[in-house]
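INFO batch 0412 | record 1 of 1 | parsing
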Amino acid sequence: MHSEPKISVITPIHNREKYIRETLECLQKCNYKNWECIVMDDDSTDNSAMIIKEMARTDSRIKYFHQPKSPIPVTKNNAVAHSSGKYILPLDSDDLIAPEYIAEAVEILENNTSVKLVYCSGVFFGDKKGKWKLPAYNFRQLLLKNCIHNTAVFRRVDFDSAGGYDPNIITSEDWDLWISLLEKGGEVYFIDKEYFFYRKHTDSFTDNHQDKIAATQMQIYANHKEVYDRLIDNPIQFLRDYEKYKKKYNQLRRLTFRKQIP
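INFO prediction complete | emitting tokens
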């Protein structure tokens, strides 16, 4: 029986002393043991560092690093650079995963070389509660709107081939990475179990920064212009219209594409 391949959990943090202990404890409760957590401290000014270092003293799988304040894609890239696992799992410093998630995701990737990305059903907790109702994945849907949450599992080698997170992305850097991972082929596997718990805050970034979201959409289009131009008529206007009128659409079939993806 071969040993479990290592998975590297990357956790950026900035002033999350209220939540980081619970996040790290959820990893310690996992039934998959060969993990490391690269906690990249983005110049916190609260007690986050003290809590992480305290936990790292009794669990060598928790690894603390500090950097000057940087954009989140840069922070994540730096965390991956310090990692040594075959697989990568991003986990924000206030979110949680179920004990079974890593083991099931790694098993899927180990047994299916065509699968590039594994994710699961998500649940909101905190200031908003309930099931996270993301659209079902297909590549066409992904081009229009991210339908895969940020805490998905992927191979380090694929991350490197895709060039990592784009440091110019303002928000939704995971959306851009998913397109990079999948635009040249590969499958996505959805675990239909509630294994990811996303903490919602009343001041969530995506709730109050619609202008930055729009800028991100345009940057993502620029990064993947060839695939957008090939698959979608008038892609820039289409993205804008989709965001503006998405509540009026009930099904993805109402959207018009130039051609089908093979």
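INFO post-check: The chain has one domain: 7-203.
INFO record closed
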